[in-house]
Design goal:
Number of strands: 0
Distance between the termini: 28 Å
Order of helices and strands: HHHHHHHHHHHHHHHHH
Helix content: over 70%
Strand content: under 5%
Number of domains: 1
Radius of gyration: 22 Å
Largest sheet: none
Length: about 475
Amino acid sequence: MNFFKKLFDMEKGFYRKVLILALPIALQSLITIGVNMLDNLMVSRIEGLGKTALASVSLANQFISIYHIFCMGLGMGASVLVARYWGMRENDLEKAMKALRKTICLMVRLTVGLAAIFALLTFFIPNEIMMLFVEEGQEPAIIQNGITYLKYSVVTFFFLGLSLTCTIVLRSVGQVRMPLYVSIGAFFVNLIANWGLIFGNFGLPKMGIAGAALGTLIARIYECCVICGYLFFVDRKIGFRIKHLFMKTGDLIGEYVRISIPVLISDGILAFGNTAVAMVIGRLGETFIAANSVTATTQQMSSVMIQGVCQAGAIVTGQTLGEGNKEKAQKQGYGFLGFGIALGLVSALFIVLTSDFFISIFCATPETADVAPMARHLMNAIAIIVIFQATNSIMTKGVLRGGGDTKMLMLADNIFLWVLSIPLGIIAGFVLHLSPFWIYICLKSDQITKAIWCVIRLRSGKWIKKIKTGKNDVVKGFDDVREQEA
């Protein structure tokens, strides 16, 4: 009984602080999902393609999603340090702000390097990329249309990566409204560009799938220019400028590697794990691919508030520990766990109530009519999984990560994925030939076990780690957290 009391026994100021951070982030996530949904909706109405176009864009975006997850890892890894240093300002302003700017410098350098790698792969081996998701000789139309989409997405990686990571940094110091406004603008830019380039409106050429990729690129360019322009030239809270991109960062590399790189590795291996899941799905046929695309969009719509609270968890926890208040951070951890359970139940209810509506939107043409029954099976599975996913996401990507427990999270994320869910999904789909409902449950079984593990890890208190500002420096006032090393 005492445990359940801890979940919701929070001071009013806690909920207000979380919601002030989480709501703009959630709205921004909703708009981002809206952009992806817009692409899927429009390409599903390309004359003569329908289901094939939807499946092609979905699988091509699986590869882009790998990069997106890597960038989330870079950004969230840097966010752990940025939020902690921001909380340390009262103890040593100069040292904390210098370490904060070095963290951003390292993050930007890594983001550009990673973008170059993905751009080169997309440019030189688009066919091999698509072959990861579809067996050779099967679904040739999906492969060719997916290659077209990828070729027009080569430059997108640079703009997507920089806007995403810089947005996370701004959020880490409490600047959540400005990125939201930029995303609203990007949505309308994407809407107009897609409408013109996919269907040949506004006097523009009719480009089909290529138009969808080009429209997304235009929106990403707009987003990146505004976000990075604000951070590098306007923002005064962080005070990061172009000259800081060339600053010496050697004394912080060790701390950055210790805290941020495990997040990158964890999310990176997780991205490959999700790719393995996509490879399983891709070999279950065109109808299953399209149905998964429909359900994935619906799941994302239901989880926007979860994503907001998740990032708020990392920010609040990091800043609280930066102030040196370990006991308060532990108490807040239970509050975020309560948030996760409540939001998971709300998301499940949302999926149950809206699944028919979303299926009817995406399956409105004759080419996509046979997708609907399978999509309903997957929706039922997602309604169950999202309860556990909400809980573990807020804990792993929020509270525990904000506490600096990144090495343990790296191990847990990937053990549960590679040892449990992927093998079970392969067995369910190709050995036992179970229904789509049970295949999806097996593919997402790591979400259930990880939620249970998160509760155990939170209660242990071992997730709270110390963080330095340089090789040998720990900001004064954080000494009471030192002995919490696991």
